[in-house]
Amino acid sequence: MQPRTTTPSISRRQLLQSVGHGFGGLALAALLQHEVAGQTTGSIKVLHHPPRAKRVIQLFMGGAASHLDLWDYKPALEKHHGEPSDFGEHVEAFQNGLGPWMKSPFSFRPYGETGKQISDAVAPLGDCVDDIAFVHNMIGKTGVHSQATYLQATGFQQPGFPGMGAWISYGLGSINENLPTFVVLPDHRGFASNGPKNWASAFLPASTQGTTIFPQRENPIEDLHPRADFVTAQSDQDGLALLNQLNREYQAERLGDSRLDARIRSYELAAKMQLSAPEALDIADEPQHILDMYGLAKAGATYPATINIPEETEYFGLKCLIARRLVERGVRFVQIWSGNDNSFPRRNWDSHEDIQRDHKPLAYGMAVGTAALLKDLKQRGLLDDTIVLWTTEFGRMPSTQGSKGRDHNPYVFTNWLCGGGIRGGISHGPSDEWGYKPLDRNNPTQVYDIHATILHLLGIDHKRLTVRHDGIDRRLTDVHGHVIQELIA
């Protein structure tokens, strides 16, 4: 029997060197560099096409922010303010919000080279409108907060589906293994509708779920550090080592169960985060002009019981600054929430009673933090490959509820995107003259289209990122969605 000959292995570097120093070598070098750049640590080993973005920051306004009072200027409402509303068709209101037409209590002004009209409630974002793509013809499927929030957060209006951040974590994997891939910064007063189900992993590996961080709390990450006085650093490490050994022995007897593996990985990540997370959350090294830009000049002040601009500015600005610190350290997806569920007096965007009272503090505080975030990302070169998505579950009606409020409007509302390959300074898909429905009712934008576009910019074909579950190839965009080419630079 002839002895088997083996071909010596050759590394990429050796292969490149063997090609020579001419044009062919340079071409091969470029190809190999592109191949490596397209690789991920997630389920997609090589990206479907060259990416424009690496990471996403999603800003979610819980309770349904009014497009008519922030982004979508309607002169017709100013002209016909106080007149009986006539929609020309039967309207199904959520409560009783079919009073007279109601103009915005806030003035609108043009900003930027594009002259985009936005309201005084979000004036700090005026400096950024030329970088933003507004989508004014978003439609939902329901006026119920929980279902509509699920739809925007997960692509489905019922529970049991992974959040967008979980899908992206699953597909692309981690950039920095010392921090979570997907981080959630909830409202400091509590969760919005559905709570942690909005960022759950569902049928994806449990390790893809969002990690909640409350940066304004004394203990921002629950259970990260032992709180008992008798625990030392060495005993903590020894305990984790023993726990890991027991878990690995248990796992070896139950192959194919991803839950235990995810739990082990979470413990391993927690051990790494004990060193990396405190540094990421510590803003003490930020220069004063950056703190001022984010509205943190008087951080830790005492605030009145009524909703107010300085308080909203501080808490939202802090989350935006933490988001910047997280993405520059390799966190793939950060979700920032404004508004908690069913609070009263209103501490969310569900302004049935008084748009001016509730929206102004929330909107202005949000705008200060968001404008600082966009400018900060841009000056650091991070906005080029970071997508910022502004989201809410639906809009509000152009007619009044009571005398000062607005009812739910799932028939049209606004999202906007910025950075990461997005073409700024445009307004896509206008709503009708009242801001009640899309002007072109046959071609609205749905959340599936937004999700498909974001995945596309990350190098992912939204139809190819699937997981078999209960006999169905599930994906973030369900069986819908198309890339909105107009939004891409």
Tell me about this structure.
The protein is an alpha/beta fold and 489 residues long. It has eleven helices and 14 strands. The chain has two domains: 12-41, no CATH class; 49-224 and 284-487, Alkaline Phosphatase, subunit A (3-Layer(aba) Sandwich), CATH 3.40.720. The protein has helices spanning 12-19, 23-37, 75-79, 145-154, 164-172, 233-252, 258-281, 288-293, 309-327, 355-379, 447-457; strands at residues 55-61, 108-111, 116-119, 132-138, 182-185, 211-212, 333-338, 386-392, 395-396, 408-409, 413-418, 426-428, 467-469, 472-474. Strands 6-5-7-1-8-11-4-12 form an eight-stranded mixed β-sheet. Strand 2 (108-111) and strand 3 form a beta hairpin. The protein is globular. The chain starts with 11 loop residues before the first helix and ends in a 15-residue tail after the last strand.
CATH class of the largest domain: Alpha Beta
Q: Which whole number gives the mean pLDDT?
A: 89
Percent helix: 25-40%
CATH architecture tag of the largest domain: 3-Layer(aba) Sandwich
CATH topology of the largest domain: Alkaline Phosphatase, subunit A
Sum up the overall morphology in one term.
globular
Question: Characteristics of this structure?
Answer:
489 residues, Alkaline Phosphatase, subunit A, 12% strand, disordered N terminus, eight-stranded mixed beta sheet, two-stranded antiparallel ribbon, alpha/beta
Gist of the model:
The chain has 489 residues and is α/β, with parallel strands linked by helices. It has 11 helices and 14 strands.
Write the layout of secondary structure elements.
Blueprint (H helix, E strand, L loop, with lengths): L11 H8 L3 H15 L17 E7 L13 H5 L28 E4 L4 E4 L12 E7 L6 H10 L9 H9 L9 E4 L25 E2 L20 H20 L5 H24 L6 H6 L15 H19 L5 E6 L16 H25 L6 E7 L2 E2 L11 E2 L3 E6 L7 E3 L18 H11 L9 E3 L2 E3 L15
Parallel strand pairs: 1-7, 1-8, 4-12, 5-6, 5-7
Antiparallel strand pairs: 2-3, 4-11, 8-11, 9-10, 13-14
